[in-house]
Amino acid sequence: MILDLFLDASHGPSEHGKNQSPEDGARSLTFRELAAATRNFREDNLIGEGGFGRVYKGQLETGELVAVKQLNQDGLQGNREFIVEVLMLSLLHHSNLVTLVGYCTSGDQRLLVYEYMPMGSLEDHLFDLEPGREPLSWSTRIKIAVGAARGLEYLHCKSRLFLKDQKKYRQLADPLLEGCYPRRCLNYAIAITAMCLNEQANFRPLIGDILAALEYLAAQCHVSESNTGPAREVVETVSCQA
C-alpha cells in the first residue's frame, strides 16, 4: 500500500498541505486547543519521541490533521531559541518543506504544530523494515533525493535563509514523496520584523518576542562556506540502504 502511494505520486512537485499563502504565518493556538486535538496527549496518539520532547498526532477543530511537537520543559532549547524557531519556520513556504501550522506558549508549555505527514520519516522506510515489507524501489529513492534537494535549494537560494542544522534522517516522506523537514534556520532580521505587518493579530508575534529573536540572531547569524553536505548525505543514504 505504501509503495502504491509512492508510485502514484510521480507526477511532479507536490502542493499537498500548502494552502497557506506566503503572507500567512504560524497562528497562535491555546494549550486547551492542542490538548483537545491530541485527546489530552494520549499515548496512542504518540508518533515520535526524542531528546527535544514528544510528537503527537492531532486533529484541530477545523478537521486539519497535525503533528504537535511538545518540547521538554527542562530541555536545552531556551525561550529565545523557541521564538526564533517559530519566526523562522513561519517564513518558509515551499512545496518541499513541511508547513508550520501554529505554536503555543502557554505558561511553561512550548509546542510547535506542523502539518501531518502520514508516511512518517525517511528513516522509517530505510531501516529495520518489518518482515515481508519491500524496500523502497530505486525510482522512489531518486524522487526522495530530488525532493530533499529541492527543499535545500529553496533554503539556500530563494528563501534568504542560512541552513544551520539539517540532519539527513529528518526527511519526512509525505504521500507525494517530496517532504523535507527544515530544522532551525537563521534569517535576515528584516524578514522577521516584516511579520509584524500581518493584518490578523493572532499571526503577529509580540514585540518582546521580536526583540528577543533579533538579539539572538545578532549573536548567532553566520554564513556557511558550504552547505551541500546535507543533500549529499541524503543521496548517499538512500543509495546505500538497499
TrEMBL record:
Residues 7-26 are annotated as: Disordered. This is Protein kinase domain-containing protein. It comes from Salix udensis. Residues 41-242 form the Protein kinase domain. The keyword Kinase applies. ATP binds at residue 69. It comes from the Eukaryota. It is found in: Cell membrane. GO terms for molecular function: ATP binding; protein serine/threonine kinase activity. It is a lipid-anchor. One of its GO terms (cellular component) is plasma membrane. Keywords: ATP-binding, Kinase, Lipoprotein, Membrane, Nucleotide-binding, Serine/threonine-protein kinase, Transferase.
